[in-house]
Amino acid sequence: MTIEKSHYELIILGAGPAGLTAGLYASRARIDHVLIEKGAPGGQVLTTDWVDNYPGFPEGISGFDLSDKMTAHAKRFDVNIMTKEVASVELEDPDAKRIVFGDGSAITCDALIICTGASPNKLGIPGEAELAGKGVSYCGTCDAPFYRNMHVAVIGGGDTAVEEADYLTRFASKVTIVHRRDELRAIKILQETVFANKKIDYVWNSRVTSIEGDKEVERLQLVDNDGNTSALEVQGVFILIGITPNNEMLPLERLEADEWGFIPTDGETLTSIPGVFAAGDIRSKLMRQVVNACGEGANSVVAADHYLKTKSEN
Amino acid sequence: MASDKVQQLNDAEFDSAIGSEQPTLVDFWAPWCGPCKAIGPVVEELAEEYEGKISIAKMNVDDNPVTPGKFGIRAIPTLILFKGGEVVDQITGAVGKTQLVDLINKAL
Description:
The structure holds two protein chains of two kinds. Chain A is an alpha/beta fold. Chain A contains six helices and 19 strands. In chain A, the strands form five sheets. In chain A, strands 1, 2, 5, 6, 7, 8 and 19 form a seven-stranded mixed beta sheet that branches. The model of chain A has no long low-confidence stretch (mean pLDDT 96). Chain B has a single domain (6-105), classed as Glutaredoxin (3-Layer(aba) Sandwich), CATH 3.40.30. Chain B has four helices and five strands, in the order E-H-E-H-E-H-E-E-H. Chain B has helices spanning 14-18, 34-49, 66-70, 97-105; strands spanning 6-9, 24-29, 55-60, 78-83, 86-92. In chain B, strands 1-3-2-4-5 form a five-stranded mixed beta sheet. Classes of the chains: A alpha/beta, B alpha/beta.
């Protein structure tokens, strides 16, 4: 994709729910903007089977459809979306915050909204990388149909792990949830669903130490909190143990991050650098859901607009 | 913005499509897969940029059960790079363009 111009008032990084909402608000406010996304818009919600807690959809909606609707909504107001992979962000010059692309080209802006989101965590154990795509998966809704009538394991006990375990039982004959604690962390309504599902069983207080298999996953080696080891014969393993911030392109020596790499902001989404805002899952916060990502995306544009106006008056 | 430079493959024509000396990158995908959709525009872009150097093709795993089974595909998107009918390398997940360019360069 060729670059149309070299400087914008506002650049938004990432087109998940936060970035798409920011784009929508920026476009309606007639702010000179561009929304940069490396692939198709949607973000992590694209891989969510079903969204039951986003207001306005009383029957629920698939994550796929919700991201389609958000993208269509942004496009209705002519949000300027650029498909390009960002290599690095340079924040030395307050008047020209610089976005450098994978191909070496660059554009600058006055205000920047970071909506780069997060990606699934990896376990970092032997066999995980070697068997990725060969029984090791990070997306139940993507890969469940490959496990028809098979026994699979889900690692994790949060909302995503529990939702995906339930989804996997549509295809798999049996799903074993392996969790390092003695109770699930997922919200109660999701716990009720999985505890009622006869195809799901549990290995509590246990961690996976390695994933084994010749060409495909054959078994997991487990250790419990007392140090006892065991093997679990499965044909697939879904690793759903939380998320890691997509911050590799950000200058963290200059931009403040928390101990996990998320970006702290004030109540108006302003980061430690004037004119740089953060919204959605990349932001340091307690809850990461579509509903607050959208709210923060909208808020960040109003805050950025205020910054731009104050800047131009001085 | 579907590119006419991306060939849609099926099980029947797969072997002849990957048999050529010019490398072929095949994107195994399905319509219900979010990350497949996310990576779609990048694959289209590569087809434009590498026209004449490599062929870029897609295979819908829903409609074509044989080939994905043959290559042990258990996650999508999986992109496999072929040269002369042999697998050069493969990558799984919605990776960025840089990683796909690195993959392609292994066969050039």
